[in-house]
Design brief:
This protein has about 475 residues and is mainly alpha-helical. The chain is built from 21 helices and 2 strands. Strand 1, helix 2 and strand 2 form a beta-alpha-beta unit.
């Protein structure tokens, strides 16, 4: 409903206030409503206006002088590029594309690490089959396979290393005892080298997965803090990825968010006229797992409602904070306790009022910090510019001194010649009178004037002599 400043200025300058009753043809009814609300100009939308605008767009090069069809097509292409760029270029810190890619990579890494760990178990199980029962965890098993190598070389000295990996003294002792009475086959050193190198690759992948999870957590706290505080970073990222973007997720109603990820089951239920699914991706939330079987549907519906509110707050707020997400999480906890114990939860209006007060304080603090950072940045920029200016002045001064040094030898030569001339005068018995500079100039000028007067007299005499000869 807010009219753009350029469009407002164009309408106010092109149409005077007296012509407010004149009709404006607008293609989009929303723009027409905004113009009427802001400026009071009546706007008409409909099929006739669309046809007129289409005709103007088609014959625009003919209607405007000096505009060719090629330049008009270039202008349209540039407008399309700028529109697409504006759609793509949002705030760098709030881009949800990175969340979509990172959660997809995280899921792929989970599958790959699981597959590779099973391959390590099968490969190393020929040599030490009892280790699988003692250590069922994949990453720990890979680290043990790399650390142990040949089980026959395992001794009491290796207990400390085993305890560091397993984090349990009893398990480390069990591994040592199992290695002494193992039924596994012997393996050549070359095979052990290959097993150890593959295990190190799997360990590196699992370490990278941890780092990627931390990156996803930090991005979710920047892009959708309320949603991640309510339902968790991983489930919130999966919802954003499945919807396509945070904006699309904010546009969905709560009923769609509830079954997001279970579309196949929904269409199958609609086709067979069976029971529709109660939850999709939000099933991975802890709330539904904690609820009783009869309350799972109700708590999933309530949770989907709160997820929709949180996603809309994250999408359309200027400074996103996790305050609303924490309050919404408290509401879900209270509703869960209500289903179990019957204790009535707080009203949504009260909770939201508290959240608005806390969020305003947090936003004010964030803005204050941003202003401080901006001031510091400006100071640093000012110091940098001053340093550059000082360096430029030093360079100029150095160049000037070099030029002066080049001119000094000539002056020294002149002085040296004058000093040489003085002793010659003294030898000839002449003494130079000390005369000021001004008097010297005046004497020189007087001498010149006398010479010019003499030249003029000679010219006059020559002329007189020539005239007498002619007569």
């Amino acid at each position: 409903g807010i009219l753009h400043e350029d469009l407002r200025l164009l309408l106010e300058t092109s149409m005077p206030a007296k012509k407010k009753k004149a009709l404006l043809g607008v293609a989009d009814p929303k723009i027409g409503a905004a113009i009427l609300e802001e400026l009071g100009y009546q706007c008409q939308t409909g099929g006739v206006v669309a046809e007129l605008l289409r005709g103007i767009r088609l014959h625009f090069p003919v209607l405007v002088k000096g505009l060719t069809a090629q330049s008009a097509s270039k202008a349209q292409l540039g407008l399309g590029h700028s529109y697409s760029r504006a759609k793509v270029k949002f705030n760098v810190n709030r881009v949800d594309n990175m969340i979509i890619q990172s959660i997809s990579l995280l899921d792929q890494l989970d599958k790959d690490i699981n597959t590779f760990s099973m391959r390590v178990r099968e490969w190393y199980g020929y040599h030490f089959p009892e280790l699988i029962r003692i250590v069922p965890e994949n990453s720990t098993y890979c680290r043990l396979a790399k650390f142990i190598g040949n089980r026959r070389e395992l001794s009491e000295n290796s207990l400390e290393g085993l305890e560091e990996i397993v984090m349990d003294a009893a398990k480390a002792q069990a591994i040592l005892e199992a290695s002494r009475s193992s039924m596994g086959m012997d393996v050549s050193p070359l095979d052990l080298i290959n097993i150890e190198s593959f295990s190190s690759r799997v360990i590196a992948l699992s370490e990278y997965r941890k780092g990627l999870q931390e990156y996803l957590r930090s991005k979710m706290s920047q892009v959708a803090p309320s949603l991640s505080a309510l339902i968790g970073e991983v489930v919130g990222a999966r919802l954003i990825s499945h919807a396509g973007s945070l904006t699309n997720l904010a546009k969905y109603p709560a009923s769609t968010v509830q079954i997001l990820g279970a579309e196949k089951a929904l269409f199958r239920a609609l086709k067979t006229r069976g029971n529709t699914p109660k939850y999709g991706l939000i099933f991975h939330s802890t709330f539904i797992g904690r609820a009783a079987a009869k309350n799972k549907g109700r708590i999933s519906r309530y949770l989907a409602n709160k997820c929709t509110i949180a996603s809309r707050i994250d999408c359309f707020s200027e400074v996103p904070t996790s305050v609303f997400g924490d309050k919404l999480r408290e509401q879900v906890e209270e509703r869960l306790a209500f289903y179990e114990t019957g204790e009535p939860p707080r009203k949504n209006l009260e909770v939201m009022k508290e959240a608005v007060v806390e969020a305003s304080e947090v936003v004010a603090e964030v803005k204050r910090k941003q202003e401080k950072r901006e001031k510091k940045r400006k100071k640093r920029e000012k110091r940098r510019l001053e340093a550059l200016a000082a360096a430029a002045e030093e360079v100029e001064n150095a160049e000037n001194t070099e030029n002066e040094n080049h001119t000094e030898p000539k002056k020294k030569k002149k002085k040296h010649q004058e000093l040489e001339a003085e002793p010659e005068l003294e030898q000839n018995g002449l003494e130079e009178e000390v005369v000021p500079k001004k008097k010297r100039k005046l004497a020189v000028e007087a001498a010149r004037e006398e010479e010019e007067e003499e030249k003029k007299k000679k010219r006059k005499k020559k002329k007189v002599a020539q005239d007498s000869e002619e007569d």
